[in-house]
Every structure is written in structure tokens, then in C-alpha cells.
Amino acid sequence: MSTRRAFITNTGKAMVAGGLVTFAENGDSNMLENKFIHHVYFWLQNEKSKEDRAMLIEGLKKLSKVKTIKTFHIGQPADTKRDVIDSSYAVSWFTIFDNAADQQSYQTDPIHLKFVEEYSHLWSKVVVYDTVDVK
């Protein structure tokens, strides 16, 4: 049975991953309509290693060259403290694809495969949230 804190933490993650975050550009609140959202959270093997963190970020920048990625964001935990916030990860990778087929293509893209091969030794844990629009 989950504790209340774990439930709130996981619900908060699911809300963000579920696309409840609205992005608007030039007043267009439907910018993400019918898009495929892929959000990845990385925990480093060597949690305190600035070098490993920098290397992972370098790899994610290379990964952004995959042609089916429409936009991406590399992030780190914000300095916010509330019970519902999980800031235990080191780096996040947020990408937008036009559709599920483009995201599936990304999974087998040589750039993505090379990223996993060259950088997977850096992380101890990866959590992925893929989301599509609510119908």
C-alpha cells in the first residue's frame, strides 16, 4: 500500500507527464494538440559528479539531432520544495514528436542507439513518461 506522500508524488509526476502542462506560443494554446510527448528522467550512477552530468547533457544535445524530434528541452530539478515535488533525478529530457510513429522511429534511429551505447553507463535509473492527447 502506498503512503500518502508517495501517492501525491506519483500523481504530480503523472500530471506533468500527462500533458497537463500547457505550452503556448503566440497565443496558440493548442500548440501541443495531437503531438506525442516523450519525457525522460535520468538518475546518475555518480550522483555528485559534475563531469558525468555534463557528459550526459552533451549526449542529449547530440541526441536532439534526430530528425523526427520537433523540439526538446534539457532540464534539471528546479529549486522548489513541496511534498508533491520529486527532485531526486539529475537531468530531464523532454521531447515533442508529431505523432507516435515519429517517436517509434526515434527509438530505432542510429543517433538514439549510439546515445544509449555511449552514455548508458552514466545513469543508474531512467523513468520515461510518454503521453498523447486525451480524447
From TrEMBL:
Pfam families: Dabb (PF07876)
Positions of the Stress-response A/B barrel domain: 36-131
Record-linked InterPro entries: Dabb, Dimeric_a/b-barrel
UniProt superkingdom: Bacteria
Protein name: Dabb family protein
